[in-house]
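Researcher: Structure prediction, please.
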Amino acid sequence: MSVHRRAHARKELTPPSKKYPDKESEILYNLVKESYGGRLTAAELEEVKKDVQAIVETSKALREIRLHNSDEPFVIFRPYRGRK
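Model: Predicted structure follows.
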C-alpha cells in the first residue's frame, strides 16, 4: 500500500461525531434491544448503543477504503527459533 493510501486510510478511520446516530446503527440497536432488551439494564442498553454506533462507524470507514486486486496484507515474518 502506498504512503498516500496509508495516510488516506488513517484519515478515513477517524470517527465522525457521535451526536447523531445514522439509520444503520439505529436499526441494529433496535434489533439488539428487541432480542435482548429484557435481559439488559438501561445502563447496559446505553453501552450497547454506543458500541453499535462505534462498530457501524468503523465499518463505514473500512468500506470507503478501496483496495486493488494487487493489494496484499502486511505480513510479519518471524523465523522459527525453537521452543522458548
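Model: The helical segments are 3-12, 23-36, 42-64.
Researcher: Thanks, that helps.
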